[in-house]
Amino acid sequence: MGRQFFICLALIVAVLCPPAAAQKYAALFSFGDSLSDAGNLCADGIPSYLATARPPYGMTYFGHPTGRVSNGRVAVDFIAQELGLPMPPPSKAHNASFRRGANFAITGATSVDPSFFEAHGLGGTVWNSGSLHTQLRWFDELKPSICSSPKDCRDLFRRSLFIVGEFGGNDYASSLAAFRPLEEVHTFVPHIVNSIGKGIEKLIAEGAVELVVPGVLPNGCFPLYLAIFRRQQPEMYGPRTGCIKDLNTLSWVHNAMLRRKIAELRKKHSGVRIMYADYYTPVLQFVLHAEKWGFLRQTPRACCGAPGVGEHNFNLTHKCGDPGGHACDDPSNHWSWDGVHLTEAAHGHIAKGWLYGPFADPPILQTRPVGQ
Fold first, then answer.
1. Is 312 a catalytic residue?
2. 338 labelled catalytic
3. In whole angstroms, how large is the CA radius of gyration of the chain?
4. Which of 33, 171, 278, 338 does the annotation list as catalytic?
5. Using CA atoms, how far apart are residues 233 and 111, in angstroms rounded to an integer?
6. Catalytic pick from 254, 334, 341, 349?
7. In the prediction, which pLDDT does 12 show?
8. CA angle 301-303-306, nearest 5°?
9. Does the annotation mark 341 as catalytic?
10. Please, are residues 197 and 261 in contact by the beta-carbon 8 Å criterion?
């Protein structure tokens, strides 16, 4: 009787308290740009021009700037914590352990290499600190610090989660900053998406079988673009969102093409799970249904910045971290941190949507822990 009781109790515990998500992955490796950077741009010293390495960046969770371009954690940090893994350290960090993951993302990163921009006369407008393929080279160079042999590496990578992106935001920003016609910028999309596809296949060749591939955000909703491309014609803006329709269309086209590329790679690599992660939909949700997510209902507005053109609290001469730039009283009720990047609160909502749905196809984890 006692033995049967304990067996039943064990079964109940197994159902109600499933093993921690941490057991699913041995490590987390992340690649990307400033949406994911955990400090690579600052690993060898803080450049004097880098406002994102000054307060109030990092104020919410860490209490000081860390190189993350937010007031606190970014999506990859939330995902690592939910999986029971340490937040992956920047790959350029000194004296860090990378056995359980590394973050190769760096502010300014692009999908394509600098030669692409130079060939299109954009070499002077892109600030490329490390494209996707540069980060993949860093990954290859770091392998001796991650694993002890090719077999050990493949075994670890098969049990790891890889987050590849977001890539594309800076590729398009370089063209938009040069005021290139949108028709021309649209011709870059296949090159940018194909570059991401090649990066995914390189990681699969290394042994990766679980990859998350984020799309780009709706750039037309961000205070930076709303301030720079401010126009008087009402038809340029979405009637419900107030976002610039043409810029959001560019983001939508990129994401649609990326999803097609992912579908193609799934067929080619049937033993690999490639998950599309959506930044676009949640940000639109934050704009359209702000109260549902705990945000203020307002015109897209930066928490940290200074008054400038329009009502967006964005000013290129007094950006967040610059003299004259200030944080709002409560970043948790804003989704836009500095007019270009997301607040910790927004990152947290997005990360949960990638983990459990509805902002990923398929979600990283199929079931939500009891009590959440």
1. no
2. yes
3. 21
4. 338
5. 33
6. 341
7. 37
8. 80
9. yes
10. yes
